[in-house]
Write a structure and sequence with these properties.
By secondary structure, the protein is α/β, with parallel strands linked by helices. It binds 5'-O-[(L-methionyl)-sulphamoyl]adenosine (MSP).
């Protein structure tokens, strides 16, 4: 049996409520997970929360709560959010869980004993907002630091450092030898450019208790807690370790946003090599959403509330829009008009109308009984299924949707060309009407199978309206001819009701 396909998302900071960017990343991961299951692979999908560090500590302080209580309360919201998005995650990590903390400490002990760390004192300019020391390179031409760093203060600290110097060349060689390791390729080129043109500075992996106490204590020095990024990255392996029977590591795909590439494509591989573990097969980097052409920001009120959208339009419409609108890689722009337009054109008038008129006509003209097999749309369906299969294997979700809509549009055009409502009026055309009705109903069945990873609820509804039992969750069933003659379908009902503006 092949190894389980292990896919992860970034773990989100619990310093507020989830927004569009978080939702988008988790939906990408969920669709890839469902697509792999549909291909017949065993999958383990991990998502969760990053609960330590300054950002979370400050957010808890602002609400006058102790950080653990603060995280416990918010974690409930985030787990409900995962359900709202209909994620099929197999586990949900919280970095304050003992299973994670113990693994982080064991990792630190091992690396310390192997001589990867040293202690040193450092004086520099520190941005509390970004939780990082800034360097001369971070200064603007006028000598100041960008306001986005917030208040910057001079600070002297003793800390523990992870030696990175000797690691640069093998990592460059590895990235060059493994073109799919970082995707898309322009992100890979950025990482290579960074590694070739800079000398890696050793990574500070501790924070003195005096500055930050919300973290995992260093096992070899109780005066320090672990740097939040060291703690957070290790989640991918601590949870693999928590399911030893599944043999999860190495991960197949880490899904992350473009702002955290350096942590995943530079520090994480070096950490793994020091831990004696193989590298993940791929780091898949998505872009950032804006709203109405501007940065999403709580302080300016420029936000998209995924829960409100889902409550109004349904989770499938939300999942569809984010993946159809934006390919994995570039940045995207959410507009209300764009969302409504895709809802109406592609879901309502496209898929919804096809299924509804196909099944309604079968009901009306043939009492819901499927006629003998006909193969007029078989080649179109096979094309969509073959393309979808290949695109799923490449995690090319936007292209897969385009390919599937190739079949939606072909079948809708077929209704217009064959005009079954006219055929129904002419008894001499009964056989022709049988053929048309079969092709339409069978196209709907194939579409339910292809769409399942993207629109699980809609896909299940199409299956139920076709009177089929079970779920359309195996791509192998997208083969033409699955609807048997003589089968009676269920009740047609609109999938994407029209919304009055
Ligand atoms: N806690 C770290 C990740 C640790 S992974 C070991 C973190 N958390 S975050 O909450 O700030 O971001 C979580 C994910 O959401 C990141 O992959 C980030 O890129 C993504 N996004 C945050 N805002 C986004 C948009 N506006 N658009 C798309 N994705 C965005 O970073």
């Amino acid at each position: 049996m092949s190894k389980r396909f292990y896919i992860t998302t970034a773990i989100d900071y619990v310093n507020g409520q989830p927004h569009l960017g978080h939702a988008y990343e988790k939906i990408i991961a969920d669709v890839i997970a469902r697509a792999r299951r549909s291909l017949g692979q065993e999958v383990f999908f991990l998502t969760g929360l990053d609960e330590h560090g300054q950002k979370v500590q400050q957010a808890a302080q602002a609400e006058k709560k102790n950080p653990q209580d603060y995280c416990d309360a918010l974690a409930v919201d985030w787990q409900n959010f995962a359900k709202k998005l209909e994620l099929t995650n197999d586990d949900f990590v919280r970095t304050t869980q003992p299973r994670h903390k113990e693994f982080v400490q064991a990792t630190l002990t091992k690396l310390n004993e192997a001589g990867h760390f040293y202690q040193a004192s450092y004086t520099g300019y520190y941005s509390a907002k970004e939780e990082t020391f800034l360097t001369e390179k971070d200064r603007l031409p006028d000598g100041k630091f960008d306001p986005s760093y917030g208040e910057v203060v001079e600070l002297k600290e003793d800390n523990y450092y992870f030696k990175l110097g000797a690691q640069q060349q093998w990592l460059i060689d590895y990235i060059e030898a493994n073109p799919d390791f970082i995707s898309p390729s322009y992100r890979r080129n950025e990482v290579l450019g960074f590694l070739k043109n800079n000398t890696l500075e050793d990574l500070c992996i501790s924070r003195p208790l005096a500055r930050l106490n919300w973290g995992i204590p260093l096992p070899f020095d109780q005066e320090f807690v672990t740097y939040v990024w060291f703690d957070a990255l290790v989640n991918y392996t601590s949870i693999a370790h928590a399911h030893p029977e599944l043999g999860l590591w190495p991960a197949d795909i880490h899904i992350i946003g473009k702002d955290i590439v350096k942590f995943h494509a530079v520090y994480w591989p070096i950490m793994l090599k020091a831990m004696g573990l193989p590298l993940p097969k791929q780091i898949l980097v998505h872009g950032f959403w804006q709203k109405d052409g501007a940065r999403i920001s709580k302080s300016t009120g420029n936000v998209v509330d995924p829960v409100a959208i889902i409550n109004e339009w349904g989770v499938d419409a939300f999942r569809f829009y984010v993946l159809r609108e934006l390919d994995i890689g570039p940045d995207g722009n959410w507009t209300e008009a764009g969302f409504r337009s895709r809802y109406q054109a592609e879901l309502g008038n496209g898929l919804g109308n096809l299924v509804n008129r196909s099944l309604s006509m079968l009901k009306r003209y043939r009492n819901g009984v499927v006629p003998a097999r006909s193969n007029e749309l078989a080649a179109d369906a096979a094309k969509a299924a073959d393309e979808t299969r290949a695109l799923f294997q490449q995690s090319q979700l936007q292209s897969a949707l385009q390919s599937i809509w190739g079949l939606v549009n072909r079948a809708n055009k077929y209704v217009d060309e064959t005009a079954p409502f006219k055929l129904a009026k002419d008894p001499a055309q009964a056989q022709r009407l049988d053929e048309v009705l079969y092709n339409l109903a069978e196209s709907c069945r194939v579409l339910a199978v292809l769409l399942n990873p993207f629109l699980p609820g809609t896909s299940a509804k199409i299956y139920a309206q076709l009177g089929l039992t079970g779920l359309p969750d195996k791509l192998a069933e997208a083969t033409w001819g699955g609807l048997p003659a003589g089968h009676t379908i269920g009740e047609p009902a609109p999938l994407f009701p029209r919304k009055e503006v």
